[in-house]
Model the fold of this input.
Amino acid sequence: MELQRLGTELLEEASGRSHRTDAVLGRTGGPAGNARLTAWTGAILFVLFVAEVVTLLDVRGLISWHVALGVLLVPPALLKTATTGWRLLRYYTRGRPYVEAGPPILPLRLLGPLVVLTTLGLLGSGLVLIALGAQRSREDGVAGFSWVNIHQGFFILAGVALGLHFLARAVPAWMIIAGRRKESPGRPPRVPGGAGRLAVIALTLAVAGVTTALVLPAASSWQHEQFDGGFAHHHDEP
Done:
């Protein structure tokens, strides 16, 4: 019965039928403003992740794009971690509006840490690959695994976690972005702080762009590699 109840809650959440009362407060919008910032950041991450996966269709030919998109993902991923982390912090420190809104359903509370850890592990290991270069990334590693293996492992884990997260949160997030999510009975209220949220997103993307421009030249060694089944092989120039 308990599993059936959890399954019903998850289905209602994924379909957007469940209702969480996100209070609209202050100049930032309070919990409702936080939910909007999280939803918009998630949408940006989704687009970038899809583009990153597309580069895997020809990772050798699109290696520059693969690296650039991987670096671009880091600041938005950190922003989404911060917005969801802030909500959890305010809930567990008994911030009244966040307590009244309630926590995510149990399956999403269990999935959340896995999404964060695997995503940051994937992006972090990717940055390590750039820092070490192609050759050292296959030689250095942890517990007998090269950094290339570690990055590939995180890709699989993150793919599963993010896939489940997307199935559960895509519709509710879209309802928030489209202004169809009601924080109270009647018409959806206007949530203040829109300009501030837009500024935060714009700043995050600007930081992502500058970071990518600075980091991309360091990945030049990967442009001289041959790839076979996801593993890189050194290519000696004639």
In short: The CA atoms of residues 134 and 203 lie 31 Å apart.
